[in-house]
Prior knowledge:
The chain contains 13 helices and twelve strands. Helix 2 runs antiparallel to helix 8, helix 4 runs parallel beside helix 5 and helix 9 packs parallel to helix 13. This is Cysteine desulfurase.
Amino acid sequence: MSELKANRSEKPIYLDYQATTPTDPRVVKDMMPYFTESFGNPHSVDHAYGWEAEEVVDKAREQIADAIGADPREIVFTSGATESNNLAIKGTARFIRNNPKGAPRDQVVTAVTEHKCVLESVTRLEREGFDIVRLPVDGGGLIDLGQLEEIVSEKTALVSLMAVNNEIGVIQNLTRIGEICEEVGAKFHSDAAQAIGKIPLDVNRMQIDLMSISGHKIYGPKGIGALYVRRRPRVRLEPLMDGGGQERGFRSGTLATPLCVGLGAAAQYANEALFTEYDRLSSLSARFRAALESKIDGLRFNGDEDQRIPGNLNVTFEGVSGADLMKAAPKLALSMGSACTSADLDPSYVLKALGHSDDQALASLRIGFGRYTTKEEVDEAVEILASTVKKMRI
């Protein structure tokens, strides 16, 4: 940890943990042997090199499964949450439509505040003739569960709703959503990239059929993710790629053993520290908010006050351009929203869904704390933001 902080000392204070996290040095250490001396292909079943790789990949499945209450056989490795979301949404919907049991199911339900890869996936299905329902959210970013209950029916193939929003940090009621889906036999998928390691997850208790996970959101490596796919009752998918039939036939291709090891280790470390880190980040967030509110007025904290993860603060600075504020405060590494849409100068569609005007959305910043954020960094960030905003408002 000390080496990591030393390398960061000359850089801006990092406050963008929802975009990505640094790889935990413990994870890097766990991965290193599988780049060099233990380099076998986990699908080579005829010799010791392959057996060794297969063994550690299976261990990674167990670590990930333990973090979400699943069976290791239900973990499918992917390149990240974007691929997992595409596979879950397109694969499930297409299989159900192409293999009807009873009345046709061609409806897919999601929310307007989902990650872009989810919204683009359902748009693709819409072009294929699926009936897509995009639920609105309230001023806090939460869906209306009563509305969801009215919409889903025996025509619904899939409901895809994220566990934690990547821009505003609000937590949807996964347990109730799972109950609603189960009542009509619809499959329930959740993008949990921002949730794993931050809130308790149990796919069986929450009746989740498919769950997407990303390594680089939990202090693991980039380029690796996983999709939980329920075995009983069995969820079936149409694969997006053809190949050698690896990963239960859902995702062909040679697995990257070091990355799988890294994701497994990251999931274990995050889950072990879940409650202590929750309390620590809650304290840092409360400290930041109280200090910032005491120094400047015209602030609006976005997203539901109660149903949210700690460590995510989305703030509107009245009368100030968020882009200009970031430029004027180069000692802070912040963002205006999802890293996947950072090149887009349009106002955040998530904040607009909450009722923000274009100007309000463009005056907002996402501030993310994480495993290596200190009280000193939080206090310094407050001072920099407060002084910069005051100067910009003159």
